[in-house]
Amino acid sequence: MGCEHLEGIQAKHVARCPARGRRDVRAPSCRRGDGLRTWRLKAAVHYTVGCLCEEVASDREIRFSKQTIAAISELTFRQCENFAKDLEMFARHAKRSTINTEDVKLLARRSNSLHDVRDRPQARVYGDSSITVPASLMGQLKYITEKSEELAQFNSEQRAKKKKKLEEENQKPVEPAEAAAAKKDNSSL
Amino acid sequence: MEGTSGGFRKELVGKLLQLHFKDDKTKVSGDALRLVAELLKIFAVAAIRSVRQAQAEDLALVDVDQLEKVLPQLLLDF
Q: B35, A101: Cβ pair inside 8 Å?
């Protein structure tokens, strides 16, 4: 295996899956100095990827080798590092310390633009014609982004309404006081 | 909306990101966390499906050889 992303994948590791205790799940590999926290996180990712593999494999007479599941989960784990660093940089660039949805949308920009053009023949590499092509997978991300924007807008509208209502209620006790004050001024003239 | 019911838990994604932040003060908003979880799921499912696609019809087991073939395109797309 010459690809550097597959380095460190050792198929000979056998352990119980910490999430379920299933003996047939191989534990993720860890380099020296990784630490227990990293191992636990890798194991959690491995478990989730395993579940996703099972779902995809269930509609066909197909199985994924343990090495493949381990490799994909290692890939996902490493991709997280890229995501985290990029997101942090985007937020910092905007002079924020909290990462928000705009940063995530920026992160996914490449995927969106690639799969928007539905005629691209390469787009079909990821899926069969019977299953939805990744264009819709990216579309799902877009859909979620739109939904979260709708939600944010709805929230801000609700807040604006509440604020307006509070302001109206606050003005009522003030009016009679002003009227009384005005009356007093008029009488003194 | 979702074709697959499995996914990455928000708590897990939060911890995964925290692991690689350079600044301790960096945090992630709830919505952003949800989106990143979805993005990771899309990435994993794309990897899984592309590997399955590269699988020859007569083999019942998907192995790392297929993953090697699809890896470059997958990483370029992301």
A: yes
